[in-house]
Amino acid sequence: MKDATDEGQQANAELLIRQQERVDLDDLRWLLQHRQGRRLAWRILNKCGVHASVTRYRQEGFLDEERNRVYFNAGQQDLGHWLELALATANEEAFFTMQREAMQRAKKFDVTVDAGHTESSAGPVTVGLDGEVESTVEPTTPMT
User: Fold this and answer.
1) Contact 56, 115 (CB under 8 A)
2) Angle at CA 101, nearest 5°, toward 33 and 41?
3) pLDDT per residue as tens digits for the range 23-61
4) Nearest C-alpha neighbor of 117 from the set 68, 36, 58, 60
5) CA angle (116 as vertex; 114, 120 as ends), nearest 5
6) Could you give the angle at which helices 92-108 and 64-90 cross, rounded to 10 degrees?
7) Whole-angstrom distance, CA of residue 76 vs CA of residue 49
8) 131 vs 29, which has greater pLDDT?
């Protein structure tokens, strides 16, 4: 937009934004139609820490490095919350299907799906894109 006060340009910009939003929702609907797409979306939500605390790497005390990690985690989580809402808006039933499938994969490997890092009797694990369990041992020192 060259002139923010021009009503015609404003209307055109708003139209372009709405068109892009429709394309984005169509893309997410397509993704959610496929089991592989739902697994990928769930994995991204977990990597963003959507269901985890932003202080998940907090050690004893609260060092500046840990504070920076919290800010980083909060940013990732914000992106994950945006994606979660977009997925649910695009296709609510497929979104719930994605959650059910994640729970079924977790039960298969006896893990809990309530955080970006999950606990099992073997320690922290993540169920990968292909349904395989991946170790995600938490750092013992702050990440920089």
Assistant:
1) yes
2) 55
3) 999 999 999 999 999 999 999 999 999 988 887 655 555
4) 58
5) 65
6) 120
7) 7
8) 29
Give the length of the chain: 144
Q: CB-hemisphere CA count at 13 Å for 135?
A: 6
Domains of the chain, residue spans = 7-135
Distance CA 99, CA 42 (A): 8
Residue 49 Ramachandran class (φ > 0 left, ψ -120 to 50 alpha, else beta): left
Looking at residue 98, the DSSP 8-state letter turns out to be H
Instruction: Determine how many CB atoms are found less than 10 A away from the CB of residue 73.
Output: 21
Please give the structure tokens belonging to residue 142: 């702050």
Mean of per-residue pLDDT scores for the chain: 78
Q: What is the pLDDT of residue 139?
A: 42
